[in-house]
Amino acid sequence: MQVMSLTDRELIGAYLEGNDSAFEELLNRHRQKIYTSIYLFVKDHAQAEDIFQEVFIKIIDTLRKGKYNHEGKFVQWAMRISYNMCVDQFRRNKRRPKVNSTETFDIFDVIQSKDANAEQRIMQSQTHAKVRQLVDMLPPEQREVVILRHYAEMSFKEIAALTRVSINTALGRMRYALINIRKMIEEKNLVLQ
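The structure corresponding to this sequence follows.
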């Protein structure tokens, strides 16, 4: 059976019938999107990897128990699980003192530009770092929408379903996030290229 051509729903069915390569394909298909969204919430490689593994353990348990329904898309369901686990982790960490990490992971390192020379890459990296700092300064609800929309590439409908708010609320949060980012750029006299 050629698992790469199967839909997510068909892969789940094949996995439940004993085809482990079907689950491996499902995992590989959505790994980057789910891991990236987790990392952008927790900002720690080890913690993101742990949560990512917990997400897929929970997915396997739910599938094996027959509790998964096919009403929504698999990736939305998996993103909901990862979001909830990130929120739980955030709540646990809130009780501990915050330590700023000096990790070297940069989401923009994953994005490759074939035409950029060294100077352009440095300028682009500096701009991305400035934008990331501005996003980090947003209120949590606004930061969450920006991360899900621009880094996890989710639609506003998906964001609304994941965060359990209306589409208008998600759109409003994005609007206020952009307004706040513009204000911070003006206040700090930043030049983004």
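The chain has two domains: 1-102, 118-193.
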